[in-house]
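Lecture notes, part 5. Sequence design as translation. It can be helpful to think of inverse folding as translation between two languages: the language of shapes and the language of residues. The source text, in structure tokens, appears below.
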């Protein structure tokens, strides 16, 4: 029983899986935040373009 406990304490195989899961979560959150920011920027650009078209102007509007 003592050997089992010592091996269990020294075993680090689960730690690497937890580290990979944490990295995956961090990358996923970064992707979501980037997509939200990009979506807002695209929405703003489309609204500006629609305003230019409605006003009949060209160039930088």
């Amino acid at each position: 029983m003592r050997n089992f406990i010592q091996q269990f304490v020294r075993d680090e195989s689960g730690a690497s899986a937890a580290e990979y899961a944490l990295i995956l979560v961090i990358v996923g959150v970064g992707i979501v935040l980037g997509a939200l920011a990009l979506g807002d920027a695209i929405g703003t650009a489309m609204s500006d373009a629609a305003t230019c078209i409605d006003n009949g102007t060209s160039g930088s509007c």
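The translated text above is only one of many valid answers, since several sequences can fold into similar shapes. Residues 13-55 form the longest helix (43 residues).
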